[in-house]
Structure formats: structure tokens, C-alpha cells
Sequence to fold (173 residues):
Amino acid sequence: MILHVAICDDEQSTRTLLQNYILRYAGENHLEVSTTVFTDGAQLLTADFSETDLLIVDIQMPELNGLDAIRRIRPRYPALPVIFYTNYIEYALEGYEVQAFRFLLKPLDYVQFSDVAGKLLHEIQKKRSSFLTIQYNDETVRIPVESISYLETDWGHVLIHTDDRIYSCRTPL
Fold:
């Protein structure tokens, strides 16, 4: 399972630093990670983040800053974890208005990065690899937790609604 991380910063050195930190953390923690880079906030407006697990964005960029870009894409991707990477802590309150996960301040060292972004990637990976194991039609079935929409009870059965089917099993909710 590959984790997808997008980075948006107008400075090449910062994009490279963040990519190196991501790859280092992935190597040290046995995670598969791919990165996509953007050079300005305007590029974020047309990007597809449906498969993205984490977006790391600089706030201060020419033309469209990171905060305004996230304000505009948040309605399409309400659950996308966003970490702002910036020199300006005064944007923190505004960032939380768009449900930022955290702020990382420049200059950033690897320990700070791994404490915030690395641990978040690890938690996302754990969540994506979680399964619910049930007995269904005399078989043991493993259902990815992330595919479960909701559960309901129906006369002693639990109905598990997933993206593509409904499982029925006799087990306490």
C-alpha cells in the first residue's frame, strides 16, 4: 500500500528538503511513499487529491498563497490532512479555520518533521491496513475498515455496509 504525499512550495530547496524527509521517514519505518510536488497555490486548484493522503503546503507564495488555495479546495476534499509549512506563525489561527492538521515552522529539522508529518503518515498507514474479520456465508472475510460506510443491526444480525456490498453476520455489535 503506497501513501501519497503532495508538497506545495515555491522554493525548490524546500521542496527537495521535504521530499528527502518523507523518503527518509518512509525508509526508516518501512512505508511505501510517493510524492507529488507543486510550485504554487494556483496549481493546487486544478489538482486531483482524491488519492492523496497528506498535503504539505507553504503559506507565503506569490500570486495565490497556500492558505487561500486550501480555502478553495477544502470543500472538494474535506478530509484531506493538511500541514502548513511556514515562516509565519501568525497564520496559525487562520489555518485552523480550514482544518489544518498542524503547522511546521521554518527552518525545519528532521526530528520535528518526523514527530508531526511522519507520525501522521504512520497513523494513516495503520488505518488503511486495518480490517474487520467476520464470518460470512461460512467463510472468514476480512473487510478493510476504510471501506465500511456504516453498521446497523437487524434482528440479531449486524449489517456491514461497504462501498460495494452489504455483509450480514451474527455477532454482537
